[in-house]
Amino acid sequence: MLRGYNAAGAGMIAQQRYQDTLSNNMSNALTPGFKSDRSTLRAFPEMLIRAYDSQNIPTQNNLKLPNNHRVGAINTGVYMQEDTPLFKQGDVRETGFSTDLALVNGEMPDENGFNFYMIQNEDGDVRYTRNGNFTVDSEGYLTTADGHYVLDADENRIQTGTEEFQVTENGQVISPFDTTLLGIAYHPNANDLVKEGNNLFRNEGAAVQDAHTTAGVNFRVEQGQLERSNVDPEQVMTEMMRSYRLFEINQQVVKTYDQSMDIAANQVGRIN
């Protein structure tokens, strides 16, 4: 009986966490360059049930031999193992603003390879993003909408001095102040990147490479355009409804077990 409680309760918790992931995806459906999260549900290890008893042997001493046989396996529930970003190119739309840059991937030498802009966070560390919705701050530096500095290929801040600058398809930034190469990183396995908030990723795996010089890496930068989120709102809504129904089913199972326990405790066990 208690195993049923645990299994149904674990199912409710897993679906609640899945709903949180889906809600976050939906809330970022309009965030430029956002990569949707995919949740992985996994069952707890199965438990093997065996029956142990003894068998009477019709002998003079009434011998008893121990006996056990396999009954079967029982599943103890499910849990949400992890969230992993879906690194898939989003649609590109035109904005007309010179500070908006869309990074469009071409062919990659690695199956899970992906390109990113290089960003400097508030601690001075290098982070990576696909959000090209940039702006120019009061000091003339190219920054993200959250105020993080955009870096060049040498990990230096890019100073354009004005919003009237040009960016070529290969990422060269041409402005009255300076001419430099936009910092574009290539990661051979983007699944090693971890979301850090504000649409930024940090690397916890293989070394990040320079996309400009890495053999086989192809990309182009389109100025005045933005890469949209790769979230599919219709699919997310469908998954949210499906997850909610599964949550309700597990909730009903818990109620049924609770009613059975109530009957067992207050009616079956009652002494008249």
UniProtKB/TrEMBL annotation:
Keywords (A to Z) from UniProt: Bacterial flagellum, Cell projection, Cilium, Flagellum
GO biological process annotation, one example: bacterial-type flagellum-dependent swarming motility
Top-level division of the source organism's lineage: Bacteria
Domain Flagellar hook protein FlgE/F/G-like D1 positions: 112-173
Domain Flagellar basal-body/hook protein C-terminal span(s) in chain numbering: 223-266
Broad class of where this protein is predominantly found: other
Domain Flagellar basal body rod protein N-terminal: 7-35
Localisation per UniProt entry: Bacterial flagellum basal body
GO cellular component: bacterial-type flagellum basal body
Family: Belongs to the flagella basal body rod proteins family.
PANTHER family per record: FLAGELLAR BASAL-BODY ROD PROTEIN FLGG, FLAGELLAR PROTEIN
NCBIfam families for the chain: FlgEFG_subfam
UniProt name for this protein: Flagellar basal-body rod protein FlgG
Lineage per the UniProt record: Bacteria, Bacillati, Bacillota, Bacilli, Bacillales
